[in-house]
Design brief:
Order of helices and strands: EEEEEEEEEEEEEEEHEEEEEE
Oligomer: single chain
């Protein structure tokens, strides 16, 4: 568990196991941090409702609750990039580097369920579904990701929509897909170079344009 002291906010609540802590979009500096190891399943050191403040004046993250979506991509010549959260771009732009693998997870969630995802890989096609932080794609085979589907499961799927969009070779950013729709391309030999993923309250507005999400 860890919590941070943020400018003008003071101590925020405790986050754990990769969840975001601090602020985004406020230009507020971190001034202190506390970190504690707790036995698995033991109570948190204190309140856990507000570890992270984001999204232009709201204490909510990307229009949803404090549930975070985290994701990490394996990039050509780079390896595993650091974790990204709640709509931040994972990958690269303008470097012509392919994504080769991805891991996606939920943290700080209020409801039962999880997340599953499926990637379309060069020379392989659509792989089987992976869940809750498992790697989808390949490692050490120099194969590009070309497409992806992401969906929520359990009660999480009843409470939220998951939106995602990809940056692909020669096309740039495509439109936002949601809830298991295909994003990217198939049959064009185009690499994925970047991805953004967000949670939105069920039936809430999309983060942006939803046309042209998949090219085949």
């Amino acid at each position: 568990y860890y919590r941070v002291h943020a400018q003008d906010y003071g101590w925020l609540d405790w986050a754990k196991n990769g969840a975001a802590a601090g602020t985004a979009g406020y230009s507020k500096r971190l001034e202190a941090i506390e970190i504690k190891i707790v036995e698995k399943g033991a109570p948190a050191p204190g309140a856990v409702t507000r570890p992270y403040v984001a999204n232009g004046g709201s204490d909510q993250v990307t229009g949803a609750t404090n549930t975070n979506i985290s994701y990490q991509t394996h990039i050509q010549k780079v390896g595993w990039q650091g974790l990204k959260y709640n709509g931040a771009m994972s990958g690269t732009s303008g470097k012509s580097l392919r994504l080769e693998g991805i891991k996606i997870a939920l943290t700080n969630q209020e409801y039962e369920g999880g997340i599953k995802y499926q990637t379309h890989v060069q020379n392989i096609g659509w792989q089987d579904w992976k869940t809750n932080g498992a790697m989808s794609g390949t490692s050490g085979q120099s194969l590009r990701l070309e497409g992806i589907k992401i969906a929520l499961t359990g009660e999480m799927a009843n409470k939220y929509d998951v939106y995602y969009r990809v940056h692909i070779q020669n096309y740039g950013w495509l439109g936002w897909a949601k809830n298991g729709e295909e994003a990217g391309s198939e049959g064009l030999s185009k690499r994925l170079e970047g991805i953004e993923i967000v949670l939105v309250d069920k039936n809430g507005p999309a983060p942006g344009e939803t046309a042209n999400k998949f090219v085949k």
